[in-house]
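U., I forgot to send this yesterday:
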Amino acid sequence: MLKRILQKLTDNNAIMFPPVPMEELKIVNNTLKTHNLAEIPTAYAKLLTVTDGLIWDGMELYGLYKKTRKDYAFSDILHLNLEIKETGAIKNKVIIGKTAEAFIVYDADLEKYNVLNRIDFEIIDSFSNLSDALYLYVEPLFL
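Result:
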């Protein structure tokens, strides 16, 4: 299903970036772990080997590298998570994306992808896999 979602996003003008090598994912995972944050989950790591993040219709999925497009700074997973970690809201979690109102977060303790309110970090929705979490936002592309 993840491949189908990525194909639909590509067909609908998502901004995608060159993929990242697995060795670099390992370095970022080690750093996240050192800071008591969750490692990048396997399904999301596979996505990053296709595209180092993406932007589509207000949804951003973070990559390993910070990017700039037309005066817009696109955050990277490591620095964003280290910054938000200071709030105490994401222990053993990793933020992988955002929408206008929510963060998309992998919770390693629960082994779930949660959609969290960006203001108070309360769970809005929860999914057992990445495809289902992303489908919440891309469902109109499949209708």
